[in-house]
Write a structure and sequence with these properties.
By secondary structure, this protein is α/β, with parallel strands linked by helices. The chain is 41% helix and 14% strand. It has an eight-stranded mixed beta sheet, with helices on both faces.
């Protein structure tokens, strides 16, 4: 049976009747809603909801966006992304509040476990773990849409925004990284982005958690030093080249898929504080799993998908009774969130 959560009037941020694009809370809520629009687009397709029965349009029309393109995965014909254009009525346009608005938004959904899309989505989840997502047709189609939006912006890169949730956040990450390596930095919103690692953040004892992270950093740095050999300088330079890209990363510590971003950024400061900054920096751009799989090995200059030097990290510290709540996109437009924000800049 179709979920009531697909109905904007039931579960959407209907309170947000005026959007101040200079407000980070408003930006977060609208970007999360546009990602939800992609989820509902695919569910509309699966339930054959068309015309007045379609539930997806309300998720973007409420904020004066129009759908320019639905992105379709050729492997299963599922809708995995969308390109939106901001089209506010002139009589509603506040020049000050709208000064920071995007012109185009490219948004990507995460995994849908319904019969008609589950197989393909779960296959891509597995490729994500193996760091093979960028070779798949879904990412290539998404990257084509991103490049098309950048070209349409005619140099106004700050007016092209990327957004994604879960698997979709991984696609947005890959796309934004590819642009950043070319010198093009675009605003990016990553909701519950996957961090493929042991769930150290779930360890309740802070001292034990820090001890595990410190030990892991020394192991990772040691493995990287051995396996990368002469390619380490190239990898460091490639990682540093991403520093100008500062994505907005939204995580929930109760979500085992994304929670490690909390420790990833905080731990870098800890390693500097104990005089092991060099070890920490080397560990920051590598993971043992990916090193052993050959990712970032031999000077190829490509770090694992989930690692990047800079971010504005927003952590939802509010209660999350279950995984579905902690990992869900719906949490990010709630007006009563207990948020903790911090900025981290690499070099």
């Amino acid at each position: 049976m179709p979920s009531q959560k697909d109905l904007f009037d039931v579960s959407g941020p209907t309170y947000l009747t005026f959007v101040n694009w200079n407000c980070p809370h408003h930006r977060r809520s609208v970007m999360a809603s546009l990602v939800q629009g992609v989820y509902v687009l695919e569910r509309d397709r699966q339930y054959n909801r068309q015309g007045f029965d379609a539930r997806a349009p309300a998720w973007w029309r409420f904020f004066h966006f129009e759908l320019r393109q639905a992105l379709v995965d050729a492997a299963d014909n599922s809708i995995f992304g969308a390109v939106y254009a901001f089209q506010p009525p002139l009589h509603l346009l506040d020049p000050t509040a709208a000064a920071g608005a995007p012109h185009l938004v490219v948004a990507f959904r995460g995994t849908i476990t319904k019969k008609r899309s589950a197989k393909r989505d779960l296959e891509l989840d597995l490729q994500l773990v193996r760091n093979g997502l960028e070779r798949k047709s879904r990412f290539l189609a998404g990257m084509q849409a991103i490049r098309g939006a950048v070209a349409a912006a005619a140099g106004q890169l700050d007016r092209v925004w990327l957004a994604g949730h879960s698997l979709g956040a991984a696609i947005a990450t890959l796309g934004a990284k590819a642009l950043a390596r070319e010198g093009a930095v675009v605003p990016t919103f990553l909701f519950n982005a996957p961090f493929v690692s042991a769930p150290v953040e779930r360890i309740r004892d802070k001292r034990v958690r820090q001890g595990v992270r410190i030990a892991n950093s020394f192991v990772t740095a040691g493995v990287a030093a051995v396996l990368q050999k002469g390619g380490g300088a190239n990898n460091a330079a490639a990682f540093a080249a991403l520093a100008r890209w500062v994505p907005n990363v939204f995580v929930n510590p109760a979500d085992p898929i994304s929670a490690e971003y909390v420790g990833y950024f905080d731990h870098r400061k800890k390693m500097e504080a104990i005089g092991a900054g060099a070890v920490g920096r080397l560990a920051t751009r590598n993971s043992v799993k990916d090193l052993l799989l050959g990712v970032g090995k031999g000077g190829g200059g490509r770090e694992p998908l989930h690692l990047f030097p800079s971010a504005v990290l927003t952590v939802n510290r509010g209660p999350s009774p279950d995984f579905k709540t902690a990992h869900g996109i719906h949490q990010w437009w709630r007006p009563d969130l207990a948020l903790e924000c911090s900025a981290h800049y690499g070099s």
